[in-house]
Amino acid sequence: MEKIKIGDIVARKSYNKDILFRVKNIVNTKKGQIAILIGVIERVEADSDVSDLEKVSEERVNEDFNHIQKKIEERVNKLGQINKSKDKYIITGKILHLDGDRKYSEKSYRYYKKLGLQAIVKNIPEYKQPRVVYNLLKTYNPDILVITGHDGMIKNTARYNDLYNYRNSKYFIETVKEARKYDKETNNKLVIFAGACQSYFEALICAGANFASSPGRILIDFVDPIIVAEKVAITEKYKYITIDDIERDLRDGKKGINGIGANGKMYKMTK
Fold it and tell me: pTM of the prediction?
């Protein structure tokens, strides 16, 4: 068997190789080597016995990458036409996006840039996000905050109300709370998206998120948080957005993302 190493693209044999993962770390334990995995397309974190992993063929990797790239390009082309119809006096909402995954951060930035949106994207590990969000908000003063990365339930059980059954939800929750402290001081009516795959949806909403994942404790697509931010950014301030306005653009609709809604952040300057 070919040796598995950090950075390899792999799939789990016991799960019929359904999801592509990148090996984030390998830990030696008494029971053998355990690999910490992060999704290539989905925003999920998991672990696995190294013996259960198999390197994925370049053809399979390219197939998955091409699928997600095609989805992004289709959306950029569609919304690019909408943006071209706007005049220079229309200002879209400003986005601050914190992402625990470096590659996702880079892809997200390119997506925002192609759409012509105002966006600052920071690659910050999930556990560090609560420590830095206040100062970043103070520095950039955004209209929309995206808090995401990777997540997942540690045990395959129905213990949905146990915070310790989630890999990174506690950090997302803490980050939302810190952001709301800043928002209370500035009264900016910040719109927040928070969460990743299988995140503790109810707790994120209670902490102050407008939109969050994942009500159905399912995997969400890498682009789902970006789509929410983009929709808020290009919707007029007088319009209230609900998940009904977004769900068709999301991979799994309301099962993946839901929330209480928010007003848009686009406005027209006086000529």
Answer: 0.91
